[in-house]
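Team,

Forwarding the record for the chain on the shared tracking sheet. I've put the sequence and predicted structure together so nobody has to dig through attachments.
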Amino acid sequence: MKNSTYILYPFLMLICLITSQLTVHAQNHQEEIYKIAENDTLKMDIYLSDENKKDKPAIVFFFGGGWVSGSWDQFRPHAVHFSKKGFVTILVDYRVASRHGTSPFEAIEDAKSAMKYVKMNAERFGIDSAKVIASGGSAGGHLAASTATISGFEGDALKEISAKPVALLLFNPVIDNGPAGYGYDRLGERYKEVSPLHNLKEGVPPTLFFLGTKDRLIPVITGRYYQKAMEKLGSYCEFVLYDGQPHGFFNFKNREIYEQTILETEAFLEKIGLFPKS
């Protein structure tokens, strides 16, 4: 009986922790439809900071999954964490091949629509529209980077509002869609339209770029080249390598590394003047 108690106790503690997180989630967030594309209703999950201040910075997160699958739950731990630090945080759903039969081109359009929606509703959310940060992992990192580097894909609405973020937080992002990069099999020669590496220009916002040295999808040399290209254009790019780590190393399931990347992200945001002051 004593052994059963020891087995049951950690389980009960886990249930309490999950219940606590769900309570926080229910109190501090709201879902909204940001776009209807044909028959697809697209939502965002918004975490409103506990801070009573107005004009807060915001972080918009795009999940990974190769533009084929994925869930906004990937970045929920990040959203919860940074909402407690004074940010408004937004998890975005967008069209993917497995659920909507779409291509990366539609995903880019959705990402831009989401950024525009956040800025349009900045006052209602308590956000400073000039302090909207884009973030994402893998293909979601590509979408975040696309809002800062890719022209077009604006859709029909809100053309007067820029989708460009004030900064980028990129987790092993897809930034090269060329023949030697990721996604060329689906993009073909149109890669030149949507590859962030091939569309860098002056004015790209400061960027934090995380990558593992054992990433089979994003070569380290590609990340270094991206950083150098940014610097030549006068933009700041902080390139952080994690030795021996594979693609997706930053996710919450790798708790120790997740927390390290959180600290690196906070330091970067502090450095560029976007971390909320207490």
